[in-house]
Amino acid sequence: MLFLDEPTTGLDPGSRAELWDLVRRIRAEHGTTVFLTTHYLDEADVLADRIVVVDAGEIVAEGTPADLKSRFTGNPAASLQDAFLSITGRAATSDEPIAI
Predict the structure, then answer these.
(1) What's the domain of life for this entry (predicted)?
(2) Which terminus of the chain is less hemmed in, N or C, by CB atoms within 10 Å?
(3) What is the bridge-based pairing of β-strands 34-37 and 2-5?
(4) Distance CA 34, CA 87 (A)
């Protein structure tokens, strides 16, 4: 099991892509479970098999990215950010952090 807490914060785009390639290789070659926290919802959307949305210290939703988007926006092609905003009822300008 590999725990990563905000691993790409502050990385340039090239380094960010290299880190995710490394994580994907570790998962594929060793069957490693990766537990990730991130504020980058685009990252979670592409990389996660399962997402848990934590808001104000409480689990408020969980599922696959497609499931969360379908359930909370009615559109599986929506962004995960749109789903998050629907789940939490918060405006996109909120400064409160979340963990996914």
Answers:
(1) Bacteria
(2) N
(3) parallel
(4) 24
Rounded to 5 degrees, what angle do the CA atoms 77, 38, 14 make? 85
Element spanning 5, H or E: strand 2-5
- Is 94 a residue whose pLDDT tops 70? no
Q: Are 56 and 50 in contact (CB under 8 A)?
A: no
pLDDT tens-digit series, residues 11-46: 999 999 999 999 999 999 999 999 999 989 999 998
83, two tokens: 């789903």
CA-based end-to-end distance of the chain: 17
Domain boundaries defined on the chain:
1-36, 38-100
81 burial type by CB count under 10 A (0-12 exposed, 13-18 middle, 19+ buried): middle
Check residue 62 and give its pLDDT.
97
- 79 residue type, one letter: S
Q: What is the pTM of this model?
A: 0.77
